[in-house]
Design goal:
Largest sheet: 9 strands, parallel
Number of helices: 10
Order of helices and strands: EHEHEHEHEHEHEHEHEHHEE
Length: about 325
């Protein structure tokens, strides 16, 4: 029997339910486990983590919306990740980790052999944590690192921290998707990121929604995509003070680049792994509503596990409330 998914949102988990989850994990019958926004005792959280450590089938773990609510739970999770070898995607969005939590998790995260997607949005991180995260984006020729990184809504990170991340992105040999939405970046940091994007040979998606940018930033990105070769395919600039005309110009140029690549690239045979791939949930923070909400696709993500490659990417530069980068999986 193929591994299935367990998805529970916003419920109080009983000891019996936790026992069922643990048994399924130990039997290697679970590929996706999502208990986002759920309440459970510290003891039961520890039981789930020990079962995650034993699982050989689990590819995606979603603990979004405050499930990892203390340093004790962070230690349980770190211990699980030190033993687990199958996990590819870890969602911790909305967990009050602080820098101390990242210090606890870092040894397990940075040495995990399979982890390629990490969501640390709204985890109250600062520069110390960001320095550790940069270590998960090793330079060309080094070990493999993250392919997708989400750092949405971490306003405690300073301009020095973002500059350090820009350098790491420029030299990363793996990173495809970087989500920095709802951080107070401003035009100066956006300029650093533009240089990083121009230097990167892999970055395809950059989300800068609601980051305090102006036409000055948009002009820099326009010059970059107009005059320099780049791997960038999606640039999200919604909820910024940027003219629709500049947004459309950038969109058109990115679309042209994608069309050129399609013409040059030979047709690919369908990847069996991508057909059965899992669609993760990305919780997109929106400050107007001041809460998290799963919302609809902005784009089709790249084709590594656990994402689907069933339809072409789209380049979207504007969006309103009720949209998200990743589609929520059905039960």
């Amino acid at each position: 029997m193929l591994p299935a998914s367990i998805q529970i949102t916003g419920e109080m988990l009983s000891a019996a339910e936790v026992q069922d989850i643990c048994e399924s994990l130990k039997e290697d019958s679970v590929r996706l486990l999502s208990i986002r926004g759920c309440q459970l005792s510290d003891r039961d959280f520890g039981r789930i983590c020990r079962s995650v450590a034993e699982s050989h089938s689990l590819a995606q773990l979603n603990l979004n919306l405050g499930v990892v609510s203390s340093i004790g739970r962070t230690r349980h999770l770190a211990d699980a990740l030190k033993t687990n070898r199958s996990l590819q995607t870890l969602f911790l969005h909305g967990s009050p980790l602080l820098d101390a939590g990242l210090v606890t998790l870092n040894p397990a995260l940075s040495t995990h052999p399979s982890l390629v997607c990490l969501d640390l949005g709204d985890c109250m991180l600062g520069d110390e944590a960001l320095g550790l995260i940069c270590g998960m984006l090793p330079p060309d020729g080094a070990k493999s690192g993250l392919r997708e990184l989400t750092l949405s809504a971490n306003p405690g990170i300073s301009s020095k921290g973002w500059a350090r991340l820009s350098i790491a992105v420029a030299h990363s040999s793996q990173l495809r998707v970087l989500n920095l939405d709802y951080n107070p970046l401003g035009d100066q940091i956006a300029g650093m990121l533009a240089v990083a994007v121009a230097s990167s040979r892999t970055l395809e998606v950059l989300d800068l929604e609601g980051t305090g940018l102006s036409n000055q930033s948009a002009q820099v990105f326009l010059d970059m995509v107009e005059n320099y070769p780049t791997s960038l395919r999606v640039l999200v600039l919604a909820e910024n003070d940027i003219s629709p005309e500049l947004q459309q110009q950038i969109c058109d140029l990115l679309s042209e680049g994608e069309d050129d690549d399609d013409r040059e690239a030979p047709p690919l045979a369908p990847d069996p792994a991508s057909i059965t791939a899992l669609q993760p949930i990305r919780d997109k923070y929106h400050p107007i509503r001041d809460k998290y909400h799963p919302i609809r696709d902005k784009y089709q993500p790249p084709a590594w596990l656990p994402h689907s490659n069933s339809s072409p990417q789209a380049v979207l530069l504007t969006s309103g409330l009720g949209e998200s980068l990743l589609a929520e999986t059905e039960m």
